[in-house]
Design brief:
The chain is of the alpha/beta class. Helices cover about 30% and strands about 10% of the residues. It is built from 3 helices and 4 strands, in the order H-E-E-H-E-H-E. The protein has a 4-stranded mixed sheet with strand order 2-1-3-4, with helices on one face. A hairpin with a 5-residue loop joins strand 1 and strand 2. Helix 2 packs across helix 3. The chain starts with 15 loop residues before the first helix and ends in a 5-residue tail after the last strand.
Length: about 150
C-alpha cells in the first residue's frame, strides 16, 4: 500500500497580484511625472484687494480697449502713439524722469490681449539696454481696487 502525503506543496505561481502592483506603480509614476514638470513662466498675478497706492508716478503707459498706446497722457487731449514710436516716446519720458524709483506703470484695459503687454515689455527691454543695471526700469501692472 502506498502512503499518501497530507501536505502537498503547490508549485504554481499566480501573477494576478503582480500585475495589479505593476498597474498601480504605472499610475503612480504617470501622475507624479505630470506634477513634477516645471512651468515655463512663473506668473505672480497682482492682487487688487489692497488699497496700496504708489506714491511716485514715474512713467505711465496706457493701453485702451482699441489697442492704442499713451505715454504720460495729459488729460483728455492725449494723443495716441503708434507701436513703432513707443520706444522714442519712452526714451523721451525717461530723459525727463529724475526720480529714484525707476518704474513704468502699465494701465491696460482688461480686454487688452497679453500679446500687447508682452510687446510693451519688449520695448521696455530695449529701453533698459541703454541704462546700467541699477538704473533700469521695472514694469508695474496697475489694478483697480475692489
Amino acid at each position: 500500500m502506498a502512503i499518501k502525503m497530507q501536505n502537498k506543496v503547490d508549485t504554481t505561481f499566480s501573477a494576478t497580484s503582480m500585475s495589479d502592483l505593476v498597474f498601480l506603480l504605472l499610475i503612480f509614476f504617470m501622475l507624479t511625472s505630470t506634477m513634477v514638470s516645471p512651468n515655463a513662466i512663473n506668473l505672480v498675478l497682482p492682487k487688487s484687494n489692497s488699497d496700496k497706492q504708489l506714491v511716485s508716478k514715474n512713467i505711465e503707459v496706457y493701453i485702451n480697449a482699441d489697442l492704442m498706446y499713451f505715454v504720460n497722457p495729459e488729460g483728455s487731449n492725449a494723443q495716441p502713439i503708434p507701436y513703432e514710436e513707443l520706444l522714442p516716446a519712452l526714451q523721451a519720458a525717461a530723459a525727463q524722469d529724475n526720480s529714484d524709483a525707476k518704474s513704468v506703470i502699465l494701465r491696460a484695459d482688461k480686454t487688452v490681449p497679453v500679446e500687447n503687454v508682452v510687446a510693451l515689455m519688449d520695448v521696455l527691454n530695449q529701453l533698459n539696454e541703454a541704462f546700467p543695471e541699477e538704473n533700469r526700469y521695472k514694469m508695474v501692472l496697475a489694478t483697480e481696487g475692489q
